Amino acid sequence: MTGNAMQLDGTHHQRRSPRLKLFLPGEMIVRGASSRVHLLNLSTGGALVHAPTPVSPGSSVIIHFAREARAARVAWVDGQRAGLCFTTPLSDEGVRQVVAA
What we know:
Blueprint: E1 5-8, E2 11-14, E3 20-30, E4 33-42, E5 46-50, E6 60-65, E7 68-78, E8 81-86, H1 92-100
Antiparallel strand pairs: 1-2, 3-4, 3-6, 4-5, 5-8, 6-7, 7-8
């Protein structure tokens, strides 16, 4: 990744909203198996998570955090960090509420 772009499916996409740093516990469900994760940043379109259990790029997941549950796709993986792209974006207000909590 370079600058403000994320590589998805071989092309670069500009981020539409800023990423907000946080350290928030959550739960990620992959193929029916649940594991604890920590959200490291959040935007309307996705999140960066630290996931001790390995995940694969392209996997469909459900991520639970701060009274939210979002379907997402794993966009990329680097060690125990994974970039998630939400299927349905959070609203700007939704992001602000999560960060404020």
